């Protein structure tokens, strides 16, 4: 009976050890049903440390935070419990049922995957109005507005969209990032430069606000009916007041990330009237002038002149074709060279476009160029107008005439002269040759031949030596792990350098580089990467205290950078400091 009890206890111990050694890698979400205006948290948890973590693409969501990394390492009753988590904060892009796809990670040479999770996104829900909630305070004090100049334009009439960010004096904005840029389908669009814009004072809903013009866009609708203007969406990092105060009675500020959108805008595009539309109308809408000119009106045959057809004014200059010219067949006309001198501002396109034709007359005489007309729709009078050029006469002074052409050809054929032959016409051809013998050389039994013959036998000992060194290196499993970790450190440090200017990506890559460097240098695992343990091991390696302090401060910066605004100068300083500290540890460690 005692033997059975011992066996049962042994089986329980084996099962517990097997369960403890089993790898777990799973995904968890904060909720499986949320409104389109809510946020979703996704955690990827594992019970053993791994490398090369790859998150899903989050195709139907916008990543507004993360990845945030946390490590938990506890001991209870002699049993070690380890947990590592990668966290992301997501904002849904639209309503629907979406899937959080698989994430992957490499643990002890094996690839593990999470199970896909379905999430339902519903219509926007009412968020409780809690005056102490930082998110509610942010939503009430920051607004992104799209101002449309005309919501009922004609086809091809210019309208403008100006995006303004209104910020209450109660909060302060640290940084903005465009999450979704509008695509102006069914419009011809051009953005206007808004650099060096200054913050202005204004009002929003009757209250005092500061505002900044973020974007100005000129649109020309290319279809009639109701057209949608997609919204501009921003992710804003800001500081908002909390309900806590410091020792001097001042309000303490807390950081908040918020996604704001300008909202969809709909405009109703009216078609151009059919009544009175000219047959040669090509879509010009605006206020224009029309001009046809030539570089000269008198010239000789085979000389050239330039004929220019030009339209200038304010309107959709780039969106219609200039009228074609029709000239007599005796004038040779080449394909025109199109020139545009157009500037775009909030009033639309302004400037001129022109077609320049090269014309070459063949015979003398006078050639009238008929009048050319141009039609456009005038927005001021809401009617069609036609502009016509005056007739131009080209006078060709000298050259052959059409009537005498045949007689001149006949005269030329009767006055042909006999060809005079020259006896020395082939004098340039050489008839005498000089031959010389060519001595043949053979490759066989030359010095090069013997070198190439003996080369394989000389390479055999070298190959044996290199093979032994490679086998010795392959057998050094511990050394290979160190070299691999060192290679990863260099790789992640290089990735951090490439990510300068992108706060989240830069500090994630920098932190990975520092961790992998310690794994290679101190022969420790990621689970042991605590501040005290790092300080203890580096001190044992006789590394100076100032260098150890700098290394720990860089790791701390990587953690704090996710929650505080960081500029490009600070990121460059942290990168230089990390490179310098790693170099000093290499020189001092013994």
TrEMBL record:
The keyword Aminoacyl-tRNA synthetase does not apply. Pfam families: BatD (PF13584). It comes from the Bacteria. InterPro entries: BatD. The chain crosses the membrane at residues 447-466. Keywords: Membrane, Signal, Transmembrane, Transmembrane helix. The keyword Aminoacyl-tRNA synthetase does not apply. This is BatD family protein. It comes from Neotamlana laminarinivorans.
């Amino acid at each position: 009976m005692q033997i059975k009890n011992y066996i049962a206890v042994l089986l329980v111990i084996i099962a517990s050890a097997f369960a403890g050694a089993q790898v777990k890698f799973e995904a968890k979400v904060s909720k499986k049903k949320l409104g389109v205006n809510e946020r979703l948290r996704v955690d990827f948890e594992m019970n053993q440390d791994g490398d090369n973590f790859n998150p899903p693409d989050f195709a139907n969501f916008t990543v507004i935070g993360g990845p945030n990394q946390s490590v938990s390492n506890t001991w209870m009753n002699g049993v070690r419990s380890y947990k590592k988590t990668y966290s992301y904060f997501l904002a849904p892009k639209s309503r629907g049922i979406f899937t959080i796809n698989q994430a992957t990670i490499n643990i002890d040479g094996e690839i593990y995957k999470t199970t896909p999770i379905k999430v339902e996104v519903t219509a926007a829900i009412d968020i409780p109005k809690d005056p102490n909630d930082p998110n509610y305070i942010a939503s009430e004090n920051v607004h992104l507005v799209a101002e449309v100049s005309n919501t009922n334009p004609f086809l091809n009439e210019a309208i403008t969209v100006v995006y303004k960010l209104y910020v209450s004096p109660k909060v302060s904005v640290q940084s903005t990032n465009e999450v979704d840029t509008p695509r102006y389908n069914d419009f011809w669009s051009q953005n206007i430069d808004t650099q060096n814009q200054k913050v202005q004072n204004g009002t929003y809903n009757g209250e005092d606000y500061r505002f900044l013009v973020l974007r100005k866009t000129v649109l020309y609708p290319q279809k009639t009916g109701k057209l949608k203007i997609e919204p501009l969406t921003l992710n804003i990092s800001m500081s908002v007041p909390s309900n806590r105060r410091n020792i001097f009675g001042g309000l303490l500020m807390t950081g908040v990330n918020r996604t704001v959108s300008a909202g969809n805008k709909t405009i109703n595009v009216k078609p151009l009237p059919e009544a009175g539309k000219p047959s040669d109308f090509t879509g010009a809408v605006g206020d224009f002038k029309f001009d046809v000119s030539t570089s000269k009106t008198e010239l000789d045959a085979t000389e050239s002149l330039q004929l220019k057809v030009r339209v200038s004014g304010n309107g959709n200059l780039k969106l219609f074709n200039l009228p074609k010219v029709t000239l007599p067949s005796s004038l040779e006309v080449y394909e025109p060279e199109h020139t545009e001198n157009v500037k775009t501002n909030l009033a639309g396109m302004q400037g001129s476009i022109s077609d320049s034709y090269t014309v070459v007359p063949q015979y003398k005489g006078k050639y009238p160029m008929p009048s050319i007309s141009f039609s456009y729709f005038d927005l001021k009078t809401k009617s069609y107008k036609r502009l016509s050029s005056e007739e131009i006469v080209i006078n060709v002074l000298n050259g052959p005439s059409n009537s005498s052409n045949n007689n001149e050809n006949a005269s030329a054929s009767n006055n042909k002269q006999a060809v005079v032959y020259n006896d020395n016409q082939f004098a340039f051809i050489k008839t005498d040759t000089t031959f010389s013998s060519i001595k043949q050389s053979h490759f066989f039994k030359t010095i090069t031949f013997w070198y190439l013959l003996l080369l394989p036998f000389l390479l055999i000992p070298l190959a044996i030596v290199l093979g032994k060194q490679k086998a010795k290196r392959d057998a050094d499993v511990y050394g290979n792990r160190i070299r691999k970790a060192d290679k990863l450190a260099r790789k992640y440090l290089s990735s951090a350098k490439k990510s300068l200017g992108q706060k989240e990506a830069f500090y994630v890559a920098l932190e990975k580089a520092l961790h992998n460097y310690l794994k290679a240098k101190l022969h420790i695992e990621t689970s042991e990467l605590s501040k005290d343990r790092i300080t203890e091991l580096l001190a044992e390696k006789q590394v100076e205290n100032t260098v150890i302090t700098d290394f720990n401060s860089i790791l701390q910066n990587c953690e704090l950078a996710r929650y505080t605004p960081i500029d490009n100068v600070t990121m460059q300083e942290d990168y230089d400091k990390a490179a310098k500290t790693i170099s000093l540890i290499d020189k001092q460690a013994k």
